[in-house]
Amino acid sequence: MDITILVKLTSRAWSLNILALLHSGVPGRQAPLMAATSASRTSFASSLGHLVQLRLLERNPGHGHPLRPEFRLTREGVKIAETASRIVRAVPDDTEFALLRRSWTVPILALTDTPRRFSVIKSHLATITDRALSTSLHQLEARDWLQREIDTSKRVPYPTYLAVNKGIQINRAINQTS
Which residues span the membrane (predicted)? Predict the structure, then answer.
């Protein structure tokens, strides 16, 4: 999956979960989706609106009430929902899923299938700040989804980051072609 799309998609906490639920057959009405995500009303509405804006979801014409519309996946949304479903299935635990909902977790894991330097990760995620990247790397390392190694083969040693354990499972779910 394109890293730019992945960054846009994961900028809202519940986007991946909504797509995965629609892929698994949950009806496209707001009430069943919101109940299945256990998201707050505001956060859910923000994520749903974001998916419509990204053209991954659309209103299902002729279905639903104007105040309670029904949604369906677009053609592009079907492809991305399949990937979202694989990502969500890789992390079934609710406490670990909280880390997955963070903005930069999935894009960072998508990039770290091979050891990467901080500057290389940052260059692929153009809009991320140094602080946000550093914080995300520390959180992923603390959860043991990312491994930090010091490369001493050069004159100036530097750290590299590599997805491990759940992190590599998520990486494979993202990069798997179907």
Answer: none
Q: Are residues 169 and 123 in the same domain?
A: yes
The Cα–Cα gap between 100 and 82 comes to 17
- Are residues 85 and 97 both part of a single domain? no
- DSSP H helices, the chain, are 3-9, 15-23, 30-37, 41-53, 75-90, 94-100, 105-111, 118-124, 130-142, 166-175
Is the pLDDT confidence value at 38 over 90? Answer: no
Assess whether pLDDT exceeds 60 at residue 149: yes
Closest-CA residue to 166 (of 108, 81, 103, 127): 108
Rounded to whole angstroms, how far apart are CA atoms 116 and 112?
6
0.85 cut: is pTM over it? yes
Tell me the average pLDDT across 10-32. Answer: 92
Domain span including residue 49? 1-90
Distance CA 60, CA 110 (A): 32
**Has residue 170 got a pLDDT over 60?**
yes
Report which DSSP code applies to 8. H
d(CA 89, CA 92): 6
Question: What contacts 106, CB < 8 A, 6 or more positions away?
Answer: 6, 10, 16, 87, 100, 170, 174
